[in-house]
Write a structure and sequence with these properties.
The structure holds 2 protein chains of 2 kinds.
Chain A (H helix, E strand, L loop, with lengths): L2 H22 L3 H21 L3 H26 L13 H23 L11 H4 L2 H8 L4 H22 L6
Helix pairs in contact in A: 1-2, 2-3
Chain B lengths: L7 H21 L3 H26 L3 H31 L13
Helix pairs in contact in B: 1-2, 2-3
Classes of the chains: A mainly alpha, B mainly alpha.
Chain lengths: 170, 104
Amino acid sequence: MNIQVVLFSLLAVVAIATGILLVTRRNPVSAAVSLIMHFFALAGLYLTLQAQFIAAVQILVYAGAIMVLVVFVIMLLNLGKEDALQEKFNPRTALAIAMSSALIMQMLLAFLSAPSGFNEIAPSAEKIGSPAEIGNVLFSGYIFPFEAISLLLLAAVMGSIILAKRNIED
Amino acid sequence: MNLTSIPLEYYLALSSIIFVIGAAGVITRRNAIIIFMCIEMMLNAVNLTLVAFSAYLGDSAGQMFVFFVMAVAAAEAAVGLAIVLALFRSRQTVYVDEVNLMKW
């Protein structure tokens, strides 16, 4: 057992456990906190894959910006009292658990029964994951999608302002 | 199996498990905000697959796609939460089964 295997197992267990917590928690705030922990575990997994820049962006954008927005909306709507809400047993839930367990088993069988032959991270991975190389590729080969994304973000910001406004006429 | 490094399939298996957990959450939960968080988790599972392939194949295209997926997820977060806010304002609920105006 070397450090790589230990790290991967630990982060994988944390990611799966916090994912299950997110799906099962009644209280939206504890669900949001477990999702934040999930994002941190995924950032750690990105680091084991030598993707330093993506790991940093993961924490900044997901654990920082998006989750702040989600928690802000939960607080704004005052949704803490979901426990008081009568949760009637739904056959949908049992069906979903059974079918997703079957799907997970099938996927594990498919992935783990046929080795792909990729057992090592490529030697160039460390260079690929660095911010300098990401910037280099982004601004040479992917400049059009980059500009398109900026337009999309502008449209999303304006759209959310209009949607969240109380009276459009004001 | 040698225990000195992790084969690619382990990352793919982990990412598929996370994706299916998120999909099960989208199906079973009724709170729109939790459904929204489950969708974010599914997007993250796909990101993990992309980064894993990028690292094992030595190709930077995967990390570019992750970058764009993150930008789209941020835009989706802003618009989705604004829709939840507007929904709460007009119906005083965020439970998706109480919003059935367009249900056939």
